Amino acid sequence: MSIRTATLNGVATIEIARPEKKNALTQAMYTAMADALTAATADAVVRAVLITGQPGMFTSGNDLEDFMQRPPQGENSPVFNFMRALLDCDKPVVAAVTGAAVGIGTTMLLHCDLVYVSDEARLAMPFVSLGLVPEYASSLLVPRLMGHVKAAEKLMLGEPFTGSDAVDCGIANAVLPAGEVMNHARRMAERFNALPPGAVRDTKRLMRAAQKDQLLSVMASEGEIFKSRLRSPEAMEAFQAFFQKRKPDFSKF
Ligand code: COA
Question: Is 238 helix (H, G, I), strand (E, B) or coil?
Answer without folding.
Answer: helix
